[in-house]
Please model this.
Amino acid sequence: MGARDWKSDRERTQVRTERLKIGKEITMRRGSVVVGLVAVGVLGMLSTGCVDQKKYDAVLLRNREQDKLLQEKDADIARLQERVEAMQARGGDAQRLLDEKDKALAEAARERDEVRKAFNELMEAYKRLAAGGGGAAIPEQVAIEIEQLMREYPNLFEFDRATGRLRFASDITFDSGSNAVKPEARTALAKLAAILSSDVAKKIHATIIGHTDTDPVKKATTIALLKELGKTTNNMGLSIARAESVAEILKAGGIEAARIITQGMGESQPIPGADNRTPEGKAKNRRVEIFLAMGA
Model:
């Protein structure tokens, strides 16, 4: 065998080796057209048995560059897919939040309607009480004793026999922004409880209703008090708290809890002719009323 033949055999062996190596690389390139074309060019050169080393190296380098570029594009696609999935997840969360908000709004509207209905019914009940429609008139003896008590405390409360209403001035009964009954009013209420605890008054029921003027609750001490009592921090809450304080004194004086109802009207029921735009009108509207009527 001549030197030429030996050299040709060696070149063929190198070609086969490089062909296998490049074939493996091509398999790993996920079917890329660009890489495939480059590889085909390499295989074409190799199949002729005439491999120019510089061209081969250039093709191989280009092949690797394309492979790196493909890997980068795959990574970009993966990141974009993650963003899409994250956006879809956030979209699902947002829809759930919207659904929950709509459900909460519907529930709030339902509760608002129920409160409005209950409040309207309360208004009608108060109007009936104020008009003397709370039930049968109280016994004459009880009415006389209450009138005597009124004369004993002329500045504290007034009594309307026709409607069975006792009207206590809040400014004399309570300190500003407080639900604590003042000593003189506490004494008068204890005496009223004694009258209503007598045998002749055993069937009398008392509805105690608190009222305020239109000035909003602002004092920090009043707000803290109402929160502690579990009341709303407004005039409605204050009017209820005051009605309940009066009820506690009557119960302590011997009147059964079943005979007492407490309500708060806030600023909703001013006295006719008492203008909340004037100090005098506001003073009249700040009050606690006790309506007495015969029960079953």
Q: What stands out?
A: Residues 53-130 form the longest helix (78 residues). The longest strand covers residues 204-211. The radius of gyration is 47 Å. The CA atoms of residues 170 and 176 lie 9 Å apart.
